[in-house]
Amino acid sequence: MNKYSIDHKSPMPLHAQAEMLLRQLIQEEDYQNGKVLPSEVELAKKLAISRTTLRQSINKLVFEGLLVRKKRSGTRVAQNAVSSKSNNWLSFSQEMKLRGIPIRNFELHVTWVTPDEQLINFFDIKPDRKVLKMERVRGRPDEPFVYFVSYFHPRVGLTGDEDFKRPLYEMLEQEHHIVATLSKEEISAVAAEASIAEKLRVTSGSPLLFRKRFVFDQGERPIEYNLGYYKANSFVYTVESTR
Amino acid sequence: MNKYSIDHKSPMPLHAQAEMLLRQLIQEEDYQNGKVLPSEVELAKKLAISRTTLRQSINKLVFEGLLVRKKRSGTRVAQNAVSSKSNNWLSFSQEMKLRGIPIRNFELHVTWVTPDEQLINFFDIKPDRKVLKMERVRGRPDEPFVYFVSYFHPRVGLTGDEDFKRPLYEMLEQEHHIVATLSKEEISAVAAEASIAEKLRVTSGSPLLFRKRFVFDQGERPIEYNLGYYKANSFVYTVESTR
DNA sequence: CTGTTTTATATGTACATACATTATAACAAT
DNA sequence: ATTGTTATAATGTATGTACATATAAAACAG
Description:
Two copies of one chain form a homodimer. Chain A is α+β, with helices and mostly antiparallel strands. Chain A contains eight helices and nine strands. A six-stranded antiparallel beta sheet of chain A has the order 3-4-5-8-7-6. A two-stranded antiparallel sheet of chain A has the order 1-2. In chain A, helix 1 crosses helix 4 (51-64) and helix 3 (40-47) crosses helix 4 (51-64). Chain A binds chain B through residues 59-60, 63, 65, 80, 82-84, 86, 88-89, 118, 121-122, 181-191, 205-210, 214, 230, 232-233, 235-243, and chain B through 59-60, 63, 65, 79-83, 85, 87-89, 181-191, 205-210, 230, 232-233, 235-243.
């Protein structure tokens, strides 16, 4: 039998299985080098699913920019490899270390709170379910420059007694077997409100870089909701993108 | 008849038309506030296309993060908007169009200037070489929300008499055979200085999102140096990353 | 040998249909 | 009142089918 195949009895949707297989398939050297994939009809036949279903899977990869379709020619791996790559998977502390900046934790506060509406939506939990909230102020030894607030999905299983001085994602991976693989971020500018201004030792109303971060695990399930307020000039966000 | 309808004889694919209509539709206040869209069957019927086809369109918006689906509850505009994976290769105007926001150009100013040191370095040109500087203020019809400054490398061959109301990269590609393929960006927060505050009609010192953008062509040669000052709350920068 | 036309093939578009799953609502039983 | 059950309505999954369209390659004409 073929190396790649689909289990019609699995609870996992066929298109999801197909998507997975495709992801594996296109790792193969030939495809990475630009070889066209088997045609849709062919592949559908081989996987014993309908072309429509297979198409769903391919579509997703095309949307993601991993595959490129061309009529008559076929489908192949996108050559210019869009993956923004930007090493923004480093944790804050790792990132700072890389830049040679020693980091100090000024404050660390952990509590259980009732989620607001936004959180209920993102985590998709019941309103009465308590979630773990972590606040911390970090920065150079001489001056704080970022105020973080993190909320963790109950699923993660944090108790609040963990050692939060360790790199966070390392801990989640090792102790809780949760691997953060996807993050969506929104970056904007805000004026420092009083309470935050105080924490960062700036005057109220001064500009801050504000980053919302939505973190997901492999199954695209929400894991963490993170807010970061960065003192202006202390932090620059860099993005590199190709097309 | 309904305000929204689809032309079955148009050469434009039905799913593309439906996508457009959806984009318009969800601009309506109710939907922005979280009202559920008409159900798929209902909408399909109203537009006189099949549910499958309609679904294609909705899928796209869902993938972009504009819509959220929930079984039994229905489909609605993403509230906390973990929005748009939108590959940031869209120009400003294209992006706004996509979101159904009409754009107005408030000011447009084009001059030839002597480059400062940063520019000399980036463009790698002689200090006496003049470069084209373009300034523009853009925003909603009722309020400006971004101030752009662009400098173009002499190689691009702009004269200053071009029609800068067209999408910029489109023009560069068609008229000047220059394809921008790589951009490096730095995003930070700054306080609005007087001259900019005036242009954006905010008070001096209020927070702005500041974006520096270095744009290169295929040969990684510098093309454009772009500064953007975005009024806080008017613009959110989204980044999606996987590992 | 070179330019043109045809043909075959791959993706693109579109529909009708069926059943699965899930969250809410309505209702009944405790 | 709370809990459990059932109906219902929405999206989710999946198939089979048909024809359109673009284009690379083959066939052909000059």
